[in-house]
Automatic annotation (TrEMBL):
InterPro entries according to UniProt: METTL16/PsiM, METTL16/RlmF, SAM-dependent_MTases_sf
Record keywords: Methyltransferase, S-adenosyl-L-methionine, Transferase
Lineage summary: Eukaryota, Metazoa, Ecdysozoa, Arthropoda, Chelicerata
GO cellular component, one term: nucleus
EC number in record: 2.1.1.-
Protein name: U6 small nuclear RNA (adenine-(43)-N(6))-methyltransferase
UniProt xrefs under PANTHER family: RNA N6-ADENOSINE-METHYLTRANSFERASE METTL16 (PTHR13393:SF0), SAM-DEPENDENT METHYLTRANSFERASE (PTHR13393)
GO molecular function, one term: methyltransferase activity
Residues that bind S-adenosyl-L-methionine: R75, G101, E125, N174
Biological-process GO terms, alphabetical: rRNA base methylation
Family: Belongs to the methyltransferase superfamily. METTL16/RlmF family.
Species of the source: Dermatophagoides farinae
Keyword set includes Kinase: no
Entry keyword annotation includes Lipid metabolism: no
């Protein structure tokens, strides 16, 4: 989390329950007497957000049912990063901002103006219920003179119609994740280290309205339209910022921005990673003004996760107990058992290093695959078409995205070859075989192009089973 985020220390639920009776209705005690909430219960999450806003920011907020419940720590991360950018650019006075898609509780404007009394906002929304609640929440907190809720319904543009003979300091938004087919994978949204998906995000998204969760082309197309409109408004807004939910989207957009810098159509851009527990988001900012050098702006620094280390059994039977033999054995597994061809193997003096990338989880369900192979072979001997007997796995993650390109972005998407290749992989990890005193160890780390950490854990378990 951001160093100024007050939720770096988790709220004490027992204390909250004693002080706020509504929240107390959603807590329970485990066998040791510790107080918890059910993160799969939308009512509990709604009560938690409302309680924290009241306790920590003195904001009285109502969030309707069937509408998105915002995660407070992550929203605060985003605001604090924008504060850092403004300080870096020396934009400290007469701050006027646009929040795109403010939601039912206008979370960004309410938090930002509470933390920064001199800031003013225009907050747009298209959902009628959200508009009603956002207006009420602004009025109930006496912020009418600093926050204006704007009905963007039946307007084709996202924000450029607001920038007519006006100047704004920044734009911010947390766009809908999913495209209109709702077939997006949840792999890169929230995954626990043990590989299990968190129910928190899926159930929370189930409380959202269609407008909050889904848009044509998903967040990639939405942000590309923001980029396209930014080419038309340019210096009328000092900084354009977005918070992104998918790593694949982030990498593709970062690639586009780099290309724009090289073509001198942008002045500079910045990016950072936002973390809340197991959940990651990414943020981008760009500007057309040469006065603001975003490339060397502050980033939120996170501690790197510890590498996975496994000590090999000296009495292993699969191969000789030496670095060279183990490296050759792993290379053979990657090629012939896992059918992974996208890896590099570097043999050094006292260790061997691998860089491994894959979009297929062939290390999963090894027993089932062996049974299917035996079944397939037996069916062949009976001259029976075996296709109907073989269980099908999940489809590989589709890397195609609705391009959603505006007129100004098409040339960058088409000309930049880097944006046409895979920007993320189901697995991207390093593997090092080396000695630790008298022992030989395998050290694995998740790399930057991996969609999550779980695939690295799974591959290590696969190697543990094989290296015996």
């Amino acid at each position: 989390m951001h160093p100024r985020n007050i939720y770096r220390q988790k709220p004490v639920y027992e204390q909250l329950a004693r002080e706020y009776s509504d929240f107390a209705n959603h807590v329970y005690r485990d066998e040791k007497g510790k107080v918890h909430i059910d993160y799969g219960d939308i009512g509990a999450l709604r009560s938690l957000t409302q309680t924290l806003l009241k306790k920590d920011f003195h904001l009285n907020v109502q969030i309707p049912e069937q509408r998105l419940v915002p995660t407070l720590p992550m929203r605060l991360n985003y605001i604090l990063w924008i504060e850092d950018l403004l300080e870096h650019c020396r934009l400290c006075y007469q701050i006027k901002a646009i929040d795109i898609g403010t939601g039912s509780c206008a979370i960004f404007p309410l938090l930002a103006t509470t933390l920064n009394p001199e800031w003013r906002f225009i907050a747009t929304e298209i959902d009628p219920i959200n508009l009603d609640y956002a207006n009420k929440n602004v009025q109930n907190n006496n912020l009418n003179n600093r926050i204006t809720i704007y009905d963007n319904h039946n307007i084709d543009t996202i924000f450029k119609h607001l920038v007519q003979n006006c100047h704004f300091t920044f734009v911010m938004t947390n766009p809908p994740f999913f495209d209109d087919t709702f077939n997006d994978s949840f792999e890169d949204i929230a995954t626990k280290p043990n590989g299990h998906k968190t129910s928190f995000h899926w159930r929370k998204m189930n409380s959202a309205s269609t407008d909050e969760a889904i848009c044509d082309g998903g967040e990639l197309a939405f942000i590309k339209q923001i980029m396209d409109e930014s080419f038309q408004t340019k210096k009328s807004i000092d900084l354009y910022t977005v918070m992104i939910g998918r790593k694949k989207t982030f990498l593709e957009l970062k690639c586009l921005l780099k290309d724009m810098i090289e073509n001198k159509t942008l002045a500079s851009f910045a990016h950072t990673e936002l973390c809340q527990g197991n959940t990651k988001r990414w943020a981008l900012a760009w500007t057309f003004d040469d006065r603001y050098q975003l490339a060397n702006s502050p980033k939120i620094i996170h501690l790197k996760s510890k590498p996975l280390i496994h000590y090999l059994n000296p009495n292993m039977k699969c191969c000789d107990y030496d670095i060279q033999s183990i490296g050759n054995f792993i290379e053979n597994l990657l090629l012939n058992d896992l059918h992974i061809e996208q890896f590099q193997m570097i043999k050094l003096n006292k260790r061997i290093e691998f860089d491994i990338k894959s979009n297929e989880a062939n290390w999963k369900n090894q027993r089932r695959k062996r049974r299917e192979k035996l079944l397939q072979e037996s069916m062949k001997t009976m001259h029976i078409d075996t296709d109907v007997f073989i269980a099908t796995g999940k489809r590989p993650l589709d890397n195609d995205q609705n391009n959603g390109d505006g007129q100004n972005l098409k040339k960058f998407s088409q000309s930049n070859e880097l944006c046409k290749v895979n920007l993320t992989y189901l697995l991207h990890c390093s593997l090092i075989i080396k000695r630790d005193k008298q022992d030989i160890v395998i050290k694995m780390e998740t790399k930057e192009m991996s969609q999550n950490k779980s695939a690295t854990y799974e591959l290590l378990q696969y190697f543990k089973n094989k290296l015996t």
